[in-house]
Amino acid sequence: MRIKEILKLKGENQTIKARGWIRSVRNSKAFSFVVLNDGSCQGTLQVVMNSDMEGYEEASSLLVGSCVEFTGELVASQGKGQNVELQAKGVHIYGKTDENYPLQKKATSLEFLREQAHLRPRTNLFGAVFRLRHQLAMATHQFFHERGFYYLNSPILTAVDAEGAGEMFNVTTFDLEKMAKGSFDKVDYSRDYFGKPTNLCVTGQLEGECFAMGMGSVYTFGPTFRAENSNTPRHLSEFWMIEPEVAFMDLEGNAELAADFVKYLISYAFDHAGDELEALQKYHQFSAKGTNEKYENHLLVLEKVKDSTFERITYSKAIEILQKSGKKFDFSPEWGVELQTEHERYLAEEFFKGPVTVTDYPKDCKAFYMKQNDDGKTVRAMDVLVPGVGEIIGGSQREEDLDKLIKRMDEMGMEKGPLWWYLDLRRFGSAPHSGFGLGFERALRYISGMKNIRDVIPFPRTPKNCDF
Amino acid sequence: MRIKEILKLKGENQTIKARGWIRSVRNSKAFSFVVLNDGSCQGTLQVVMNSDMEGYEEASSLLVGSCVEFTGELVASQGKGQNVELQAKGVHIYGKTDENYPLQKKATSLEFLREQAHLRPRTNLFGAVFRLRHQLAMATHQFFHERGFYYLNSPILTAVDAEGAGEMFNVTTFDLEKMAKGSFDKVDYSRDYFGKPTNLCVTGQLEGECFAMGMGSVYTFGPTFRAENSNTPRHLSEFWMIEPEVAFMDLEGNAELAADFVKYLISYAFDHAGDELEALQKYHQFSAKGTNEKYENHLLVLEKVKDSTFERITYSKAIEILQKSGKKFDFSPEWGVELQTEHERYLAEEFFKGPVTVTDYPKDCKAFYMKQNDDGKTVRAMDVLVPGVGEIIGGSQREEDLDKLIKRMDEMGMEKGPLWWYLDLRRFGSAPHSGFGLGFERALRYISGMKNIRDVIPFPRTPKNCDF
């Protein structure tokens, strides 16, 4: 039985087995107390070993991290903090640890634990993070499934630079060593695996549009990649993205869907990972002690967002607010330039004191595929900004008019050839459609309150870091 | 309202709007019949336009694939095959098609549709395939979630060759053109994005083990990659894999979990994609007509598997059965050699007439990480074989003993350095654990009855093919 189920039992003296990893051992004269966790939940099981138990000597000398199975009687606990405890009658040792075990009480900085990413799911903190991650993934599927969306696995390998940003990883089966040794005028891609230059996807949106234009409502939830040289607490080279795409939906519907989704994620976390959120909050509170960082209970912020109405303003209005704010920004807000995080946070945290969706950005700030407004200057883009983070979602209504789309691609100097199929969507049975993207780790960082995005993904990939 | 919901209504003369893509238009003197599909379900809505309807002339001349919105009254239908139909009062045309629209009635070979992968979700057949795909993805999450497993996103980018098979895609941010032009003795990987040679993952298992050894039961469901030069109806270069990994589970438990999972997938498909399965079955039946192919109703095969007990035999016993079968195989079955698909299919289809799990393979047939049996010759591997396909799942109990694992890696000439973290799992708090892998597209091919695996993934990637 897993500890999650054991902790739900009443201590009615039934005999059970409990397995897991030792979190701590405390020895007194006649007893030994072991705290056991098996990862099934945030809670731990207290095991009491009497000194006359068979194997007591070996068991009471086990170190933190050892893997054991106890057989014993589950009884009501006298101690604080638990309802039941296990009176051990026997013990089986699966695997010991020694003093080299990296997860000692003292050595638990987040930086250090990142270097021990294979072991960190055994800690209280990362157990909470990764169970929360699981619940939010389930929430994502449930949210879209309930609304009649179909899950789409957009391709990871692609020959298209969908964002036109160019920060992509090359994929090849060429032997790089051999390649470097030779001296050629040109690479003969016809001899590469796919017969042409190939990259890792930066988005699944364009393929999402193909499917929306036939299946109505779809969403992707898969890995995407950016080869930017960004070493920040907000950037990963490999991250999971959620991208719904909906036929016949305009920007209004898109903004509503995005707000509903964010609120759903938060509610689901409270409902399905309450213990984990609480453990995280306590961790943040504890970490802030003795530092200069201002501690703010992030659960209260989430509670507020969960029940709020998302404000909606245009980009032009946002610029006006920022310019009139009297606030000193590092970058002075100016029409025509993308909002900076400091601007976004001012709007959400100080001006609206809640989530706000900014729409109708200057076309030059945004990608080629966004629906052009009649003013000739702005596009039907939207960014959802939340307190504490800034932008958490970016999306748009897509340009469904073939001529306008081609004109925009030409203006931007884009090659149309590789996107013939994308243009086909406008050529044959075109329809209005919209969608957005939510970086799963950005959302998880927000809801967990973890400061570094590397601490919410199992094995983070960042510049010069591809361990495990 | 989506057509899925519309078709559930009774025809009580309510006024509704229906949007979608035209599947067919049939004109008579006074009426026009339009068949409309919006991808929300297998069903279509019949729309009747009276010739006195505003915009009738344009609407009745629309070609297949056009995207429209009808407003009208939903009434009980007199015609066969539908309960309700829409009496159109008005029409709005979103996007027309012309005679260049590729999805004409005549041109619908699967090969041709693969070249139109951006449009094929609009067809009856691929609508069925991709809605079924969605349902089986949901089934997967639900199956594991219900059993207390946590979803793990194992990394896609990796510096490890986890299977030791070497058929991997290289990932780099080096400019290949520049690289080819130079002439260097060695590649200076310290200047590459990750500072070392990096590949796309072939499995998430090793990382799954890290998480199982702390969170108990986990599963991955993500893309994996093989750079094999295999152009077959069973191989993809990019495919989605499901890999559960469970602490304290032995091979018996693993085999049970695998059988339960396969049966769950099939049951879920019948329960949640019945219309799609039926459409697929009809397609297969229709396709077999006038060919030499023997048609077998694959739904009857699935029904049987769903309710069957999976037989269990050892590899040694399997070899014995094959050798005694009197059957002529292309490859003669011999102890020590991996089973061929023809062997697997004989076992499942002819001998056991149902699914069978083969265990305890010769160690030289299998990967380094499998638990070694005491006989010194075999390992605790298992393959699940099903009629019609052969192997659908491969798994094993993992070697949890550090010394045995190191000895095996040495025997196989493996470098231990890159796997220090994997060895740590045995060094600190080791425990018995097991898991398996199911190729999602293999399962989908099996359940859909589609013959080519390229037809069950949205945008297939195979040698020389990375379009869209």
Annotation, overall tally of beta strands of chain A: 16
Helix/strand/pairing category of chain A = alpha+beta
The stretches of 5 or more residues of chain A where confidence is low (pLDDT under 50) are none
- Give the C-alpha Rg of chain A: 27 Å
Brief summary of the model shown:
Chain A is of the alpha+beta class. The radius of gyration of chain A is 27 Å and the shape is globular.
Write up what this structure looks like.
Two copies of one chain form a homodimer. The first copy, chain A, is an alpha+beta fold. Chain A has 14 helices and 16 strands. In chain A, β4 and β5 form a beta hairpin. Chain A is globular. At the A-B interface, β1, α4, β6, β7 and β8 of A face β1, α4, β6, β7 and β8 of B.
Sequence-ordered SSE layout with sheet pairings:
Two copies of one chain form a homodimer.
Chain A: H1 3-6, E1 12-27, E2 31-37, E3 45-50, H2 56-60, E4 67-76, E5 84-95, H3 110-115, H4 124-146, E6 150-152, E7 157-158, E8 170-172, H5 176-181, E9 198-200, H6 205-215, E10 217-225, E11 238-247, H7 251-272, H8 274-288, H9 298-306, E12 311-314, H10 315-324, H11 341-351, E13 356-362, E14 378-386, E15 390-397, H12 402-411, H13 420-427, E16 433-439, H14 440-448
Parallel strand pairs in A: 3-5, 6-10, 12-13
Antiparallel strand pairs in A: 1-2, 1-4, 2-3, 4-5, 7-9, 8-9, 10-11, 11-16, 13-14, 14-15, 15-16
Helix pairs in contact in A: 4-7, 4-8, 7-9
